Automatic annotation (TrEMBL):
Protein name per UniProt: Lipoyl synthase
PANTHER family membership: LIPOYL SYNTHASE, LIPOYL SYNTHASE, MITOCHONDRIAL
Gene3D superfamilies reported in the protein's UniProt record: Aldolase class I
Biological or metabolic pathway of the protein: Protein modification; protein lipoylation via endogenous pathway; protein N(6)-(lipoyl)lysine from octanoyl-[acyl-carrier-protein]
Compartmental location: Cytoplasm
Swiss-Prot/TrEMBL keywords: 4Fe-4S, Cytoplasm, Iron, Iron-sulfur, Metal-binding, S-adenosyl-L-methionine, Transferase
Cofactor binding remark: Binds 2 [4Fe-4S] clusters per subunit. One cluster is coordinated with 3 cysteines and an exchangeable S-adenosyl-L-methionine.
Chain residues that bind [4Fe-4S] cluster 1: C40, C45, C51, S280
EC nos: 2.8.1.8
Entries under CDD domains matching the protein: Radical_SAM
Reaction equation(s) it catalyzes: [[Fe-S] cluster scaffold protein carrying a second [4Fe-4S](2+) cluster] + N(6)-octanoyl-L-lysyl-[protein] + 2 oxidized [2Fe-2S]-[ferredoxin] + 2 S-adenosyl-L-methionine + 4 H(+) = [[Fe-S] cluster scaffold protein] + N(6)-[(R)-dihydrolipoyl]-L-lysyl-[protein] + 4 Fe(3+) + 2 hydrogen sulfide + 2 5'-deoxyadenosine + 2 L-methionine + 2 reduced [2Fe-2S]-[ferredoxin]
Radical SAM core domain span: 53-269
Enzyme class, spelled out: transferase
């Protein structure tokens, strides 16, 4: 039996401030009232108090709260999901309106039980948000849909402003860290998005502290750039429960700054790198000027066609 890695105490820079003020409480109540899930809660994100209390932002997690995969880094519940909630896109759009968001991130559990991996619900959620909130930019973070590029085309027809798909870790550790997902399939998915929609920025995220080397991190950056990925986020892996992978190393903030410097030198248009950075952290700051201009165009079109009905389809 392999020896379990020695427990490493969390350093001071990873301690977060708990702030359950009125903004936090109102947002939590809204999510319960609308029967919505957020990756902020389900994945035990360390930034939940900052985002919900100060920035008033959230990452909606659609397609239920049960993932068909059992990745060894993730706290989201795994199992066999039951059915589809066809009213979910409208409730997400309603919540975006109530919160007055200018940028929204929509992610989902992996739904390998569905023929299209949930692409239709994803697309309908984007359309619903845009119909009710024409000035809001939208970032999506889907699974790899097992490389089903027909479903990817269906999803991209909804025209999100940023397409985000995470490689999570370096090539050598992928099999150990991620369930079912493949390193090269994720890269190919990101590349295919660029082929479908060259003007839509693509984004990916890497966790550190799982036993990777600096050389492997640099190689992962090179792989992302070779597949035309525009934005990268780099954050510290935190073990959610004792059943998950151990933390092999806590990176110092200075090391994150160095990784950011390397990423920008590689040609990424934006890099968020820090101990508490997660894929959707400060996502509103990563919206390109072209995306903002597209939203202005949508708003003008919306104002002249207020009675236009959004086209939902499955």
């Amino acid at each position: 039996m392999a020896k379990q890695a020695e427990f490493i105490r969390k350093p001071e820079w990873l301690k977060t401030k708990i702030n359950t003020n009125d903004s936090y409480k109102k947002l939590k109540h809204l999510m319960r009232d609308k029967r919505l899930n957020t990756v902020c809660e389900e994945a035990k994100c360390p930034n939940i108090y900052e985002c919900w209390s100060e920035r008033k932002t959230a990452t909606f997690m659609i397609l239920g709260d049960t993932c068909t995969r059992g990745c060894r880094f993730c706290a989201v519940k795994t199992g066999l999901p039951s059915g589809l909630d066809l009213g979910e896109p409208k409730r997400v759009a309603d919540s975006v309106s109530i919160m007055g968001l200018k940028h929204v991130v929509v992610t989902a559990v992996a739904r390998d039980d569905l023929e299209d991996g949930g692409a239709a619900v994803f697309a309908n959620t984007v359309r619903a948000i845009r119909h009710q909130n024409p000035g809001c930019t939208i970032e999506i973070l889907p699974s790899d849909m097992k490389g089903d590029y027909e479903s990817l085309h269906s999803l991209m027809d909804s025209e999100p402003d940023i397409f985000n798909h995470n490689i999570e870790t370096v090539r050598r550790l992928t099999k150990r860290v991620r369930a079912i997902a493949r390193y090269d399939r994720s890269l190919q998915l990101l590349q295919r998005v660029k082929e479908i929609a060259p003007n839509i920025p693509t984004k990916s995220s890497i966790m550190v502290g799982l036993g990777e080397t600096t050389e492997e991190l640099i190689e992962a950056m090179d792989d992302l750039r070779a597949h035309d990925v525009d934005i990268v986020t780099i954050g510290q892996y935190l073990q959610p429960t004792k059943k998950h992978l151990n933390v092999e190393k806590y990176y110092h903030p200075d090391e994150f700054e160095e990784l950011k410097k390397i990423a920008l030198e590689k040609g990424f248009s934006h890099c968020e790198s820090g101990p508490l950075v997660r894929s959707s952290y400060h996502a509103d700051e990563q919206v390109s000027q072209s995306a903002a201009q597209r939203r202005i165009k949508y708003m003008k079109g919306y104002e002249s066609q207020e009675d236009t009905k959004v086209d939902f389809h499955f």
